[in-house]
Amino acid sequence: MTAPSTAPLPPRQFGYWTGHVVVVASMIGAGILTTSGYTLQATGNPTALLALWGVGGLMALAGAFTIAELSTALPHAGGDYVFVREGFGRSTGFVAGWATFVLGFCGPTAVIAHIAVTYLTSPFAGHVEGGLPWWAVPAGASLLIAVVTAAHCLGQTESGRFQVTITTVKFVLLLGLGVGGLLFGTGDWAHLHAGHWPTASQWPALATGLIYVSYAYSGWNGAAYLAGEIRDPARLLPRTLLFGTLTVTALYLLVNMAYVFALDPADMTGRSFDDPAVQKVAETAVVRLFGRQAANVFGVLIGMSLVASASAYVLTGPRVTFAMARDGYFPAFAGRLHPRRGIPVLATLAQGGLAAAFVWVPRFEDLLNYVAVGLAAVSGLVVASVFPLRRRNTTGTFRMPLYPLPPLLYLALIAWSVVAQLLDPDKVLFALLSLGTIAVGIPLARVFGRRARSA
């Protein structure tokens, strides 16, 4: 039987900087390396591209304000699951936790690992006759996930140090692309002249772009998953969430300015959606700014730095299944802590195993579309949980300014982008599969609910 657990809780050993870098590492991933290429190819409008990333940053900040209030009111391990559980009940909380486990952690970990290995191998693929075999990238991605999972099974102190180190490398690399590209790269500010107010035909593409951008910004709630393990959560959690989100927003806008400086919009619109120059827009920009040799070095470094994002997901995700298992809404093994290391080792291994299986999906674009839509929908449910909690006066030391505008703004933009995906004939299949994954959680919630009550 699965029943609520009385096992010990993890100790509170994480400090401010671990929380800050978890937010930064959770946000900076595959999205900033791919999303802008799709938007430029579809619209050829650099002004709209920059505005889209600005709107995405505003969405993330609105979400971070909301989660800061929720996490100080409920400073427990579990993040999204805990907030929705307290707002809408255990069954709905399970649906959110289930979807977060699959679409919020396992899927994105696979996406990032796939992109990381693609960048790492791209400088060498051309030297292999006939190219790399089809299994090389998924096999490498599975190995990467296995190594990161093993690192986070060692203990809290080791996890924190590992996360801080590799996140710093990735942040410095993207900052170098932005600042170095604008100051020393071979680009053209005349590319901005192609910008204009979006035409009627461009709005659907921008709605799709917002889904991708919101995926790139996902992770602004990363520190909330460590709420049960961070010291002084009432003081530190709001700071890590808000300052981490602002840090990444500024970095994303800087990198996109470098993209606009480097890339000719007319050239991008003349390419197909699956053109490698569109899919790996960061590498394309580095080629235009600094040449092919620099791009090869950049590709290897960015692939290595993406380990930080995979690491952030592997660190935070098991805290969701841990909280669910303690409530009896997930198999009991996920709610057990290692007797010496004080971390949910079995939950970490389970997440790593499913993520490693996801990397074998044949087309990367299919995996990205599948993950992004459902993740956006679940984030809307999490943000909406602030309304019933406010009505019951379940609040912590932090209260967001201008309530209820931040959560309403977030929900309106999420709803617009998800509906646009459902109306797009090229995207609707993966949107439905993603939403269907969420729906699978409904009967599962009933099964676990009956077991928990009977136990």
Keywords:
disordered N terminus; globular; 72% helix; 455 residues; mainly alpha
How would you characterize the overall build of this protein?
This protein is mainly alpha-helical. The chain is built from 20 helices and no strands. The longest helix has 36 residues, at 90-125.
Query: What's the total helix number?
Result: 20
State mean pLDDT (0 to 100 scale): 84
Uncertain segments = 1-7
**Through-space gap between termini:** 6 Å
Element pattern in H and E: HHHHHHHHHHHHHHHHHHHH
Helical/strand content category = mainly alpha
Number of E-type strands: 0
Largest sheet at a glance? none
C-alpha geometry: globular
Binned strand content? under 5%
The helicity comes to over 70%
Rg calc: 21 Å
Q: What is the multimeric organization of the chains shown?
A: single chain
Q: What does the secondary structure layout of this molecule look like, with pairings?
A:
Elements: H1 16-27, H2 31-43, H3 46-73, H4 80-88, H5 90-125, H6 136-151, H7 156-184, H8 203-217, H9 233-262, H10 265-269, H11 276-279, H12 281-290, H13 292-305, H14 307-316, H15 318-326, H16 345-358, H17 364-384, H18 386-391, H19 405-423, H20 428-454
Helix pairs in contact: 1-7, 1-9, 1-14, 2-8, 3-8, 3-9, 3-19, 4-5, 4-17, 5-6, 5-13, 5-14, 5-15, 5-16, 5-17, 5-20, 6-14, 6-16, 7-9, 7-13, 7-14, 8-17, 8-19, 12-13, 15-16, 17-19, 17-20, 19-20
